[in-house]
């Protein structure tokens, strides 16, 4: 009988110990690992369409997003589209995360798997729209993507307001 009571006490202590460790560890994780700590209504000033490449004969079209915030953002259920009448054309898969002060490259090849959109870009004739999870709020957009050939079109500084053509793309890196 004494052995069973000791085992029950040891189990209870073990459960309390594990609970303490799990809850204590959460304190040590930085906010940048949590994602989506920025309210949706503020994301338009935090996450940007930063660079695009369309009609490059050597590779698939792509869109680079930039998170200017130090906190990570969970893009699950956000949308990317090339159609101003259908903002919800392609949704980011669950678990799509962009770390703080970091980049995410989305391939626009029509494959619709992982971080590959269900559409391809057409230079000159369509824009790109990044929309929040409500499917209505446009966080960022480009009205028309120029034909970049083997280059790209991007913000001259990350998240800045001035755009320019790059002869050498900076895909997944700083636009400086």
How does this model look, in words?
- The chain has 176 residues and is of the alpha+beta class.
- The chain folds into two domains: 2-30; 40-166, Lamin Tail domain (Immunoglobulin-like).
- It is built from one helix and eleven strands; from the N terminus they run αβββββββββββ.
- It has one helix at residues 2-28; strands spanning 47-53, 61-67, 73-74, 79-81, 90-91, 97-98, 102-108, 128-131, 138-142, 152-155, 163-166.
- The strands form three sheets. The chain has a five-stranded antiparallel β-sheet with strand order 7-2-1-10-11, with no helix packed on it. A four-stranded antiparallel β-sheet has the order 5-4-8-9, with no helix packed on it. It has a two-stranded antiparallel ribbon with strand order 3-6.
- Strand 4 (79-81) and strand 5 form a beta hairpin.
- The radius of gyration is 22 Å and the shape is globular.
């Amino acid at each position: 009988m004494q052995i069973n009571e000791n085992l029950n006490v040891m189990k209870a202590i073990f459960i309390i110990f594990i609970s303490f460790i799990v809850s204590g560890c959460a304190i040590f994780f930085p906010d940048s690992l949590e994602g989506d700590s920025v309210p949706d209504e503020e994301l338009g000033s935090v996450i940007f369409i930063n660079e695009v490449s369309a009609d490059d004969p050597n590779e698939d079209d792509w869109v680079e997003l930039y998170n200017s915030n130090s906190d990570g953002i969970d893009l699950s259920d956000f949308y990317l589209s090339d159609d101003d009448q259908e903002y919800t054309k392609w949704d980011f898969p669950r678990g799509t995360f962009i770390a703080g002060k970091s980049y995410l490259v989305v391939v626009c090849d029509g494959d619709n798997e992982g971080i590959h959109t269900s559409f391809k870009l057409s230079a000159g004739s369509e824009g790109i729209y990044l929309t929040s999870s409500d499917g209505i709020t446009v966080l960022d957009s480009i009205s028309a993507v120029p034909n970049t050939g083997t280059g790209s079109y991007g913000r001259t500084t990350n998240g800045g307001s001035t755009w320019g053509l790059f002869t050498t793309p900076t895909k997944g890196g700083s636009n400086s």
